[in-house]
């Protein structure tokens, strides 16, 4: 995977009204397993991971990398917000050479319907605007994923294209940071 870019990492934990965005830690292991093996979470993202295999492969301290945030509510992980470079050979482009910064998100079903994902993603987009000035951020989601489509619109993403990938119609949108100068 291509590096995100020259970002200072890890940042100090990012506090929002109700959440903290921070790096994954050993204590998040159970929640990470729940997240990746949940059939509900996996519905529009390729299905759940087989639990035994996933647990065996997951290191004691979950993998860390720049742009990978855990969303923490009252000292417990409720989801993941992932900022990374998109593979240049994927369909959908806003830069001629591809490799755009892409936003991804997955939250535990019990945390849906409270605005937590929106709160966490908005804070992650603020972090991108600061860490990688002027970078547009893209997002891909199945058009059938109503919750994700509503979240993308709420965050300010606008449609660039729709295409077929993984046997489903995908919505490809972009978010442009607002800059006050030049
Ligand atoms: C996509 C996903 C993150 C959306 O989660 P979500 O909780 O619906 O998203 P939001 O944080 O925007 O919350 C919005 C809901 O919270 C409600 N809400 C309740 N209290 C709220 C508050 N204080 N502030 C804002 N919204 C609030 C809103 O009314 C809205 O409910 P509705 O959709 O029933 O109208 C979640 O469904 C998920 O993890 N899905 C599985 C992974 C996945 O498909 N990811 C997409 C990859 S591209």
From TrEMBL:
Keyword Transferase recorded: yes
Pfam families given for it? Acetyltransf_3 (PF13302)
Q: Which InterPro entries match?
A: GNAT_dom, N-acetyltransferase
The UniProt GO MF terms for this protein read:
acyltransferase activity
The EC number of this protein is 2.3.-.-
Q: Which residues cross the membrane?
A: none
The reply to whether Acyltransferase figures as a keyword in the UniProt entry is yes
Q: Cite the N-acetyltransferase domain residue spans from the record.
A: 19-181
Source species, domain of life: Bacteria
Alphabetic keyword roster: Acyltransferase, Transferase
The record, for PANTHER family, names: GNAT FAMILY, PUTATIVE (AFU_ORTHOLOGUE AFUA_3G00765)-RELATED-RELATED, N-ACETYLTRANSFERASE DOMAIN-CONTAINING PROTEIN
What name goes with this protein? Answer: GNAT family N-acetyltransferase
Give the organism, scientific name. Answer: Nonomuraea harbinensis
């Amino acid at each position: 995977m291509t590096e995100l870019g020259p970002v200072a990492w890890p940042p100090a934990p990012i506090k929002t009204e109700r959440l903290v965005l921070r790096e994954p830690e050993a204590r998040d292991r159970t929640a990470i397993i729940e997240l990746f093996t949940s059939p509900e979470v996996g519905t529009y993202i390729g299905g759940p991971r087989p639990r035994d295999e996933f647990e065996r492969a997951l290191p004691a301290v979950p993998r860390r990398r720049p742009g990978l945030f855990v969303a923490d509510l009252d000292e417990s992980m409720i989801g993941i917000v992932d900022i990374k470079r998109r593979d240049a050979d994927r369909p959908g482009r806003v830069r001629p050479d591809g490799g755009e910064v892409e936003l991804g998100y997955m939250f535990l079903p019990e945390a849906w319907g409270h605005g937590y994902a929106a709160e966490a993603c908005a804070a992650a987009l603020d972090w991108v605007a600061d860490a990688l000035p002027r970078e547009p951020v893209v997002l891909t989601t199945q058009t059938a994923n109503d919750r994700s489509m509503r979240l993308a619109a709420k965050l300010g993403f606008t449609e660039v294209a729709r295409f077929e990938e993984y046997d489903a119609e995908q919505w490809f949108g972009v978010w442009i940071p607002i800059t006050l100068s030049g």
